[in-house]
Design brief:
Elements (H helix, E strand, L loop, with lengths): L20 H11 L2 E2 L5 E2 L11 E5 L2 E5 L5
Antiparallel strand pairs: 1-2, 3-4
């Protein structure tokens, strides 16, 4: 994905990410996520080994996430 700089709020007590709609769609497409009937997007567990790692940069610090993390 193209790197885009955004301002974000982080809630460490949640497993959800709230990001702009357009960015969410780009991420969902890039990861091959499937939409559920209630609007969430999921990845089948059987596909975890095929997914890339993601690096989020927060306050200048890289936070690498493996597929098992996300």
């Amino acid at each position: 994905l193209k790197t885009v700089r955004r301002t974000a709020a982080i809630a460490s007590g949640s497993t959800l990410m709230v990001i702009p709609h357009e960015d969410a769609h780009r991420l969902h497409r890039a990861l091959g996520m499937q939409a559920t009937s209630d609007g969430r997007h999921v990845i089948p567990c059987a596909q975890i080994d095929q997914l890339p790692s993601i690096i989020l940069t927060i306050a200048g610090m890289d936070l690498p996430l493996t597929p098992n993390d996300y």
